[in-house]
């Protein structure tokens, strides 16, 4: 990106220099041309047309720092107001360039000029334009690139940290087993813990692969009709063992026969994650209900539990990668901290959304809203359990 900006800016500056050079020759050969250029009040011929096709914000200053030309983007970003360049840092750069004729590059932050607007980060390139003290300023908004880069760095740091824990534990356990070679009981105990850590590592790697697969598949490359009944049936089947261990009843209900337009594997993954969580964060002898209903052009699938709930202040963060309300509890239940991030990306890949309602101590309801595939729906009262897994 920075490279392409530099290349583009280099090209533009080069093009403008050629235009200016040609213009100088024309000026010399035609006496009547551009007294504006002579006084420094107008742009060299052709420069305006080049600036007009530029994707970046472009500003041309005259020898007295007055704005001769500014693209609408430069005005929209608040870099220019009237005939003044607003960013002091940029103005200082332009003056330096005018003084020594050197092209300069820099990064600057410009505070939002409208109330509530965030700071914009620009990659700027400033170059002299001809011999009348005019200066060209090109500014590329790179706020989004900087934000994405920061998120990526955070993610890599988090992944390294999450991987280090089980890998460190495995290496320690292996050493311990070596030392306890003549104590079969200890060997069995530590081998069991090694299996546990290895499983944790496997879940983490699987979730990372799923997440990266989904992120690369937005929107879904080959969508098709997906039966919601089948996805719910398979997801419940998958979570059954854990539910049985806690005597949690898994129930499904709502409208039968609904279909969505999407990817069956992804829908199954999302439902499995939601039901897994509902079971993991609920006490024994409770119920988890999965229900389906049509909602306009969409279908709503909700997973409700009678579990510990989520504190209000954490509600808007739970879909972030590696965010856990209680890290120790998540670890104890074998959580990777990626389950809900995967659900959010599955919803986004389907052009749908996921929302949450929760009350601490009462339970939570996660609702997936996905685009429906036109089909015949057979309404079934939600109170009738279609499937009870015990
Ligand atoms: P984890 O692997 O830790 O479960 P998730 O991304 O699936 O990661 O969930 C993030 C966090 O949201 C969990 O650590 C937990 O604190 C909270 N959470 C998710 N689902 C539920 C639920 N049904 N009830 C209570 N808390 C939940």
TrEMBL record:
Keywords: ATP-binding, Cell membrane, Kinase, Membrane, Nucleotide-binding, Phosphoprotein, Transferase, Two-component regulatory system. Pfam families: HATPase_c, HisKA. Coiled coil: none annotated. CDD domains: HATPase, HisKA. It catalyses: ATP + protein L-histidine = ADP + protein N-phospho-L-histidine. SUPFAM superfamilies: ATPase domain of HSP90 chaperone/DNA topoisomerase II/histidine kinase, Homodimeric domain of signal transducing histidine kinase. GO terms for biological process: cellular response to phosphate starvation. The keyword Cell cycle does not apply. One of its GO terms (cellular component) is plasma membrane. It is found in: Cell membrane. InterPro entries: BphY/WalK/GraS-like, HATPase_C_sf, HATPase_dom, His_kinase_dom, HisK_dim/P_dom, HisK_dim/P_sf, Sig_transdc_His_kin-like_C. Its EC number is 2.7.13.3. It comes from the Bacteria. Residues 158-374 form the Histidine kinase domain. GO terms for molecular function: ATP binding; phosphoprotein phosphatase activity; phosphorelay sensor kinase activity. This is Sensor-like histidine kinase SenX3.
């Amino acid at each position: 990106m920075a490279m392409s900006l530099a290349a583009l800016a280099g090209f533009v500056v080069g093009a403008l220099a050629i235009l200016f050079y040609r213009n100088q020759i024309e000026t010399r050969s035609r006496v009547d041309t551009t007294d504006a250029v002579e006084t420094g009040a107008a742009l060299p011929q052709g420069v305006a047309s080049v600036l007009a096709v530029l994707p970046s914000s472009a500003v041309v200053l005259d020898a007295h720092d007055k704005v001769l030309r500014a693209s609408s983007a430069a005005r929209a970003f608040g870099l220019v107001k009237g005939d003044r360049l607003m960013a002091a840092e940029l103005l200082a750069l332009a003056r330096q360039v005018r003084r020594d004729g050197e092209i300069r590059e820099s990064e600057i932050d410009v505070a939002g000029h409208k109330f509530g607007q965030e700071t914009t980060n620009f990659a700027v390139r400033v170059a002299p334009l001809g011999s009348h003290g005019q200066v060209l300023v090109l500014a590329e908004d790179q706020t989004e690139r900087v934000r994405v880069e920061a998120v990526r760095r955070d993610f890599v740091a988090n992944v390294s940290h999450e991987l280090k824990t089980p890998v460190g534990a495995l290496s320690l356990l292996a050493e311990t087993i070596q030392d306890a070679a003549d104590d079969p009981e200890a060997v069995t105990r530590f081998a069991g813990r090694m299996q546990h850590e290895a499983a944790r590592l496997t879940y983490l790697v699987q979730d990372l692969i799923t997440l990266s697969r989904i992120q690369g598949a937005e929107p879904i490359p080959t969508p098709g009709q997906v039966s919601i009944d089948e996805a719910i049936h398979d997801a419940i089947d998958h979570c059954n063992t854990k539910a049985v261990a806690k005597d949690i009843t898994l129930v499904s209900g709502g409208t039968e026969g609904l279909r969505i337009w999407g990817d069956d594997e992804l829908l199954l993954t999302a439902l499995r994650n939601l039901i897994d969580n509902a079971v993991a964060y609920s006490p024994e002898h409770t119920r988890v209900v999965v229900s389906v209903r049509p909602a306009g052009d969409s279908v709503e699938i909700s997973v409700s539990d009678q579990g510990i709930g989520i504190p209000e202040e954490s509600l808007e963060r739970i879909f972030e990668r590696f965010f856990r309300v209680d890290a120790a509890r998540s670890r104890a239940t074998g959580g990777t901290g990626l389950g809900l991030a995967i659900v959010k990306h599955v919803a986004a890949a389907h052009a749908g959304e996921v929302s949450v309602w929760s009350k601490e101590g009462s339970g939570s309801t996660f609702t997936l809203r996905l685009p429906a595939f036109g089909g015949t729906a057979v309404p079934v009262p939600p109170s009738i359990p279609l499937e009870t897994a015990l």
